[in-house]
Amino acid sequence: LSLKFGDIGNLKGLVIRLLLTTSYYQLSVQNWFSLHRLQLLYNHSVQATFNATGIHAPASYSFHCERVSSLQRYDALLVPSSANDLSQLWEVTFIDFQIQGFNIQEGHFAYAKDCASFFSPAILMGLVMSLILLLVLAYALHMLIHLKSLDRHYECKASPAYFAQMKDNDMGDEKEPLRNSGNESYELRNQQFGKIYI
């Protein structure tokens, strides 16, 4: 594909040439197209050449990317092919780049395969935060499950009024005097046992 701009300033006959190829991949059972090179032609000769990386899509689709650039801050999908030519002196950036070389119908782009990664920094940060929250929740559930109940320690504990009433009512049945050799001793007739956990 060639984009012809004509004469722009000192650049005579500026042309941007995009070299596309198709290949068949058995794994996907379809043809894919790839952008292999981008060439800048002016003054009737090739002046700069960039190798393209990661610009490919199924042949029936188009390829779309917010930025295709030779700059590192935009992921540098265009890499100078050689240090000897003038490509090192050029900075090329396409904004809202979309290309389709084959199977074009009615002059419109087909469905676009986007270059955006599934694991952008924002998505990775969201996944990390979700993992941290899940760990905190799991720890809290673990602590709740293994929390020991204190109710069993107080199940037999009654109010002081209950013990006082018991003492008054059962005082007569509690002991009976025994008669022997002039000493007074008592025998417990009604023995009650209670459990108190402290």
From TrEMBL:
GO cellular component, one term: bounding membrane of organelle
Keywords recorded for this protein, A-Z: Membrane, Transmembrane, Transmembrane helix
Membrane topology, record value: Single-pass membrane protein
The keyword Transmembrane helix appears for this protein: yes
Transmembrane segments: 118-141
Domain V-type proton ATPase subunit S1/VOA1 transmembrane residue range list: 117-154
Domain of life: Eukaryota
UniProt name for this protein: VAS1L protein
Organism: Callaeas wilsoni (North Island kokako)
Name of the gene this protein is made from: Atp6ap1l
